[in-house]
Amino acid sequence: MNPTDGIFAGENPYEIARAWLAEATITEPNDPNAIALATADSAGLPDVRMVLLKAIEDDAFVFYTNHDSDKGRALAENPQAAFVLHWKTLRRQIRVRGHVAPETETASDAYFASRALESRIGAWASDQSRPLESRAVLMQRVEQLNARFGDAPPRPPHWGGYRIIPQSIEFWADGAHRLHDRFRWSRESALNPWVVQRLYP
């Protein structure tokens, strides 16, 4: 039984998440889809950074990045992640924890092709997370790659998507006197039904 109502109501957590993000798209001044993504390496050392959530699908949350970046290497060693979406204007947040799998080549190609030309060139030019001698070196690489690819750069082999397949999704809304409302959807695997629980603030 789903004990939720109001802004928390629904039979599907992905639909609730999409509805909240749609509201935030109207109220947030910048990047309503920005998530603080946490990963951990094989030694368990955590790291966190902001990335852009690009899709809320019916079974996963999707983002794209350089596979050779710090986060890409951490996910190769330990394919689990967590993130939080936080919206100051709505005073709400969504927390997600789960396993991570690569996005399909087809989906990664399609999303890459939809990006601005400058961003596609940038994906080639940046050895993300590696030391950089100067900005001039980066801009020189951009010029060289513009000359090489023109207006049709293909997707780099080191760049693509990740799917976070959640084991838990928590919806949080600010309450007076710090008496917040929290509902957690959890399940052991994608084959199990969701269990919904109200949590203490």
From TrEMBL:
<dbReference type="InterPro" id="IPR019740">
    <property type="entry name" value="Pyridox_Oxase_CS"/>
</dbReference>
<feature type="binding site">
    <location>
        <position position="54"/>
    </location>
    <ligand>
        <name>substrate</name>
    </ligand>
</feature>
<comment type="function">
    <text>Catalyzes the oxidation of either pyridoxine 5'-phosphate (PNP) or pyridoxamine 5'-phosphate (PMP) into pyridoxal 5'-phosphate (PLP).</text>
</comment>
<feature type="binding site">
    <location>
        <begin position="128"/>
        <end position="129"/>
    </location>
    <ligand>
        <name>FMN</name>
    </ligand>
</feature>
<dbReference type="InterPro" id="IPR011576">
    <property type="entry name" value="Pyridox_Oxase_N"/>
</dbReference>
<comment type="pathway">
    <text>Cofactor metabolism; pyridoxal 5'-phosphate salvage; pyridoxal 5'-phosphate from pyridoxine 5'-phosphate: step 1/1.</text>
</comment>
<keyword id="KW-0285">Flavoprotein</keyword>
<keyword id="KW-0560">Oxidoreductase</keyword>
<dbReference type="InterPro" id="IPR012349">
    <property type="entry name" value="Split_barrel_FMN-bd"/>
</dbReference>
<feature type="binding site">
    <location>
        <begin position="64"/>
        <end position="65"/>
    </location>
    <ligand>
        <name>FMN</name>
    </ligand>
</feature>
<dbReference type="GO" id="GO:0010181">
    <property type="term" value="F:FMN binding"/>
</dbReference>
<dbReference type="GO" id="GO:0008615">
    <property type="term" value="P:pyridoxine biosynthetic process"/>
</dbReference>
<feature type="binding site">
    <location>
        <position position="93"/>
    </location>
    <ligand>
        <name>FMN</name>
    </ligand>
</feature>
<comment type="pathway">
    <text>Cofactor metabolism; pyridoxal 5'-phosphate salvage; pyridoxal 5'-phosphate from pyridoxamine 5'-phosphate: step 1/1.</text>
</comment>
<feature type="binding site">
    <location>
        <position position="115"/>
    </location>
    <ligand>
        <name>substrate</name>
    </ligand>
</feature>
<comment type="similarity">
    <text>Belongs to the pyridoxamine 5'-phosphate oxidase family.</text>
</comment>
<feature type="binding site">
    <location>
        <position position="182"/>
    </location>
    <ligand>
        <name>FMN</name>
    </ligand>
</feature>
<feature type="binding site">
    <location>
        <position position="172"/>
    </location>
    <ligand>
        <name>FMN</name>
    </ligand>
</feature>
<feature type="binding site">
    <location>
        <position position="119"/>
    </location>
    <ligand>
        <name>substrate</name>
    </ligand>
</feature>
<feature type="binding site">
    <location>
        <begin position="49"/>
        <end position="54"/>
    </location>
    <ligand>
        <name>FMN</name>
    </ligand>
</feature>
<feature type="binding site">
    <location>
        <position position="111"/>
    </location>
    <ligand>
        <name>substrate</name>
    </ligand>
</feature>
<dbReference type="Pfam" id="PF01243">
    <property type="entry name" value="PNPOx_N"/>
</dbReference>
<feature type="domain" description="Pyridoxamine 5'-phosphate oxidase N-terminal">
    <location>
        <begin position="29"/>
        <end position="146"/>
    </location>
</feature>
<keyword id="KW-0664">Pyridoxine biosynthesis</keyword>
<feature type="domain" description="Pyridoxine 5'-phosphate oxidase dimerisation C-terminal">
    <location>
        <begin position="159"/>
        <end position="201"/>
    </location>
</feature>
<dbReference type="Pfam" id="PF10590">
    <property type="entry name" value="PNP_phzG_C"/>
</dbReference>
<dbReference type="InterPro" id="IPR000659">
    <property type="entry name" value="Pyridox_Oxase"/>
</dbReference>
<feature type="binding site">
    <location>
        <position position="71"/>
    </location>
    <ligand>
        <name>FMN</name>
    </ligand>
</feature>
<protein>
    <recommendedName>
        <fullName>Pyridoxine/pyridoxamine 5'-phosphate oxidase</fullName>
        <ecNumber>1.4.3.5</ecNumber>
    </recommendedName>
</protein>
<dbReference type="InterPro" id="IPR019576">
    <property type="entry name" value="Pyridoxamine_oxidase_dimer_C"/>
</dbReference>
<dbReference type="GO" id="GO:0004733">
    <property type="term" value="F:pyridoxamine phosphate oxidase activity"/>
</dbReference>
<keyword id="KW-0288">FMN</keyword>
<comment type="subunit">
    <text>Homodimer.</text>
</comment>
<feature type="binding site">
    <location>
        <begin position="178"/>
        <end position="180"/>
    </location>
    <ligand>
        <name>substrate</name>
    </ligand>
</feature>
